[in-house]
What does this fold into?
Amino acid sequence: MKKLVGLCPALPLLLALAATLGCNALSAIPADGTLQVSPPSISFGRVQAGTRQKQSATITNTGRSTVAITRAPIILEGTTEFASNDLALPLTLAAGQSRTFEVSFQPQSIGRFNGHMEFMNNGEVSPVFLGFSGTGVTPNKLVTIPTSFSFGDVRIGTTKSQTATILNSGSEILTLSAAAVSDATFNVSGLRLPLTLAPNQSTSFVVQFAPRVGGSNNGNLSLLVSGTKTSVDAALSGTGVSPAALIATSMNLKFRPLAVGATQTLTETLQNQGGAKVTVSQAWLTGTAFSIAGPTLPVTLEPGQTMSFGVNFAPKVEGHFTGSASFISDASDPSLMVSFDGSATGTLGQLIVGSGAVNLGTVALGHRTTGTGTLTAKGASVTITDANSGGSEFAISGLRFPLTISAGQSVRFRVTFNPQASGIASANASFVSSAENSPTPATFIGKAVIPQTHSVDVVWTPSVSPDITRYNIYRAAYGTSCEAYSQVGSSLNTTYTDADATGGTTYCYAVTAVNSSDQESAYSSPSQVLIPLP
It folds into this structure.
């Protein structure tokens, strides 16, 4: 009794502790969606009043769940010089997905200007900020066409070029003495400096962007006018992205055996795991027993985006069939191949699960019980390759895979029910096999009740030995035999009441006799009793 009294209060304590830990764990998990802007701030440098320059930035969802951007207002500090109309809001970014956009600076007067952009979202942090700064300077007679250079997304390790023009729009001869860029990922070529330009004269040059790592790059091109402290500045921006990488969820689709004339469809998914867009232009199919249901090509996938379609296996004759689909794209691996495998016979067997359900009966919470089920092959032999119990409270045993059952034969399997909570529990189990009805469903049912305390009256025949002063009563939980006895009490006569017997348990009871010298006899012959459930 002492053992059970000590344990019973601990059970609700442990359950309450588990519930508390579960609640704390849930409340401690932050929202997974997180936005990050790169770069965190943009400096436009010196921009001639009345002209506009652009630079790009990238906003990325670095978390593990989708984030929705609802608004992105520009907050200006006494100015209207900054603008961005490149984001179509609301905008949803999946985990790992990013979007590049442009911000423009068009000063109308001379002076320093500041502002920032606030991205309102449902992620972990809202709003997320992007800062701006720029200086409006006196208009120069030298202008670049275009006034700023935006290269967009460029794959890492490649170079993208833009051709530009420098024009002397004034009435005096001007000389360019130097050219410099503030970011090493940009380069200027084609200018032979010093360069003299007559009024209305122009010359062409090339600006290049060659990213070596991923992320946004922003800089400025400065062309210095000889004999002055003024320069012609143009904003530079571009984003280095990793090459597009097209992958398949499964590189080898295996179809279950079919009867001739039957059809099975499996779903395949392609995903762009790179940092740049990828266009899937064609799909080459081999294998006469296979066909593809969708998609309509070409299809362009943004970074992180997926494309799903069905692959049909419809054999018209018996035999083993193989095939493949090769997807042609502009990814780093331009040809992605997915292989197919299937077989067909004239007749497929059916797998029958007993009555369709295995009832495990009623068991006390904290205990387990085992039942049996039957699997039968009907029409033709069936090979079972896997089984799923459908839930953590049930377990299937007694089967070794692969297991072949001949037509008309049956095998037995065991189901163990180990309830985690009181009440009726059920699970939708299944058996994967070569049968036509694979996966074959089965239902497991059991009921768990909270064990209650009962009383057991133990009565025995008095000992014939002289000088007996008391009797000791021992109890053991019956497993496969009566062993591991523990004393539960003593009695001065030949009766004892055990008031702490748990329902659903089988106990063994034995009695010993003790004399005045405190000598104890061996155990009596045991008696078994099954304590009923409620």
About this structure: Residues 150 and 237 are 5 Å apart (CA to CA). The first strand starts at residue 35 and ends at 38.
